[in-house]
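testing teh design pipeline on a random one, pls ignore if ur not involved
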């Protein structure tokens, strides 16, 4: 998708609808007709990604009995998906939840909200089965996991484009997630 690549390369603010239309071979009137605005187009890029990720992770964990095992598979699949699509990874990390407009507008697509609900469900299942340490707030844990993964990936991308000190690999990111998860499990 032209918009995804341009947004990733130049940033949301640095990409004009005219550029998107030129690269996509369409008109601005068609863009507005289908997406209402540039923000609507960005939301469509994110929603398309979640339409690929969510069914895949749900299918992958369907027959996994352990909720901890489910969580490990979900995280691994999302990381793999983002490793394969660098443009989408850049958008998720730099544009996904950025505050826009008057300071109150954040892109939270239905697919992202569905993914968060799915993660919360796995964490609730872990708590119900006694796999988590007691007194852990599920939503706080989920936010911590998501934030840690986003931070690991974002710093790694910054290291690729600047002199930011983050020379670790994708495998190292998975190890760190496993360590974080192990710290939250009931001993």
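output:
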């Amino acid at each position: 998708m032209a918009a995804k690549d341009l947004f990733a390369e130049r940033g949301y603010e640095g990409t004009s609808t005219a550029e998107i239309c030129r690269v996509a071979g369409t008109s601005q009137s068609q863009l507005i007709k289908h997406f209402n605005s540039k923000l609507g187009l960005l939301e469509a890029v994110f929603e398309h990604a979640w339409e690929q990720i969510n069914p895949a992770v749900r299918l992958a964990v369907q027959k996994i009995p352990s909720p901890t095992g489910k969580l490990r598979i979900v995280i691994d699949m999302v990381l793999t998906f983002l490793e394969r699509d660098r443009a989408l990874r850049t958008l998720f990390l730099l544009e996904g939840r950025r505050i826009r407009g008057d300071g109150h507008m954040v892109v939270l697509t239905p697919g992202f909200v569905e993914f968060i609900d799915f993660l919360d469900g796995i964490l609730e299942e872990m708590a119900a089965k006694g796999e988590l340490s007691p007194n852990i707030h599920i939503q706080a844990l989920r936010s911590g996991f998501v934030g840690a993964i986003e931070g690991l990936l974002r710093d790694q991308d910054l290291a690729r484009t600047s002199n930011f000190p983050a020379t670790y690999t994708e495998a190292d990111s998975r190890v760190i997630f496993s360590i974080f998860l192990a710290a939250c499990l009931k001993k």
